[in-house]
Amino acid sequence: MDTTLSNGTIKSGSYSIKDMTLGWATKTKIISRKTKKRYSLEEIESLMMFVDLDTLFYKIIQTKKYIHSKKTSMKLGQVGFRGNNIELFYVSEYIYQGGAITPITTIHSYHHRCLKKKNDEIAYNMGYMYGAGQRGIKKRVREFFTDYLKLVQNVATDEISKNETMEIAMFYENNCGK
Fold first, then answer.
1. With a threshold of 0.70, does the pTM exceed it?
2. So what's the pLDDT on residue 23?
3. Residues 144-169, mean pLDDT to the nearest whole number
4. Burial of 128 by CB count in 10 Å (0-12 exposed, 13-18 middle, 19+ buried)?
């Protein structure tokens, strides 16, 4: 794995990504398997990971669940698409259940899809949200793409499915500004 730190230094080697400890959420850490040095997301700019014959790219991004939300979170986002106008990231999340009544805590994982326009600093969730599922995506598309109403109309009329975040991103990439 190649890791680019915030100061521009590139580190190569074998690393682990830790998202949780003993079933409770903690900050994500990148840990060198050789030196055991831990890096927080604040110290990292991007990661390149080699898995079998694939190369996975990750970028540290600021995310918001809703456009009007004041709360942002720093996340490790796997790059799904990077164009001239928009980027798509897959962000893993964990849900913890149990533990209060029963001694068993179950952990479920899912990922949500975040879109970030070229000049924006924050990526917004345009996919599944735990507890809300797929509800509210059309509203989030309407609020996010105020600069391209044709896309909003295509999602509102189901010409482009609200569940196809990649298709939404590609439509914006290929048609925005034309």
1. yes
2. 44
3. 92
4. middle
